[in-house]
Specification:
141 residues; alpha+beta; Ribosomal Protein S5, domain 2; four-stranded mixed beta sheet; 4 strands; 21% strand; globular; tRNA binding; ribonuclease P activity
Amino acid sequence: MEKHDERLRKEERLCSKKLIDTLFGTGGSHAMTAFPLKAVYRLIDCKAETSAPEETVMESNVQVLVSVPKKHFKRAVKRNRVKRQVREAYRKHKSFVTLRVNEHADKQLLIAFIWLSNELIDSVTIEQRVSNLLQRIGERI
């Protein structure tokens, strides 16, 4: 994989309220856990879910959201550290799912990583868990 493919661009981040509601609100989403992370994912049809004109929609085939609840870490410094670790691990291993989603025409994958633990964990362990989750998601789609 080339170096410029390992970036995590703005288009790859899930920030659309409509898409987040699609992921969590309606049925059809799947979830799997590799403690301390839970991944909720859904493969959607790009044309059906987005009602914006084609020229304004420049979204990636895979979009990611990272959530660390305030219930687990009261201080924003710790929450931001965990989010940074998860984003970095995803950035390194995203090829597992991007190659699989690119095989499907007009499909988009939405993934939400949710933190489940009350403790900080080292980056190597988080990277292994994210890699494990992405491989399992890639096999199921």
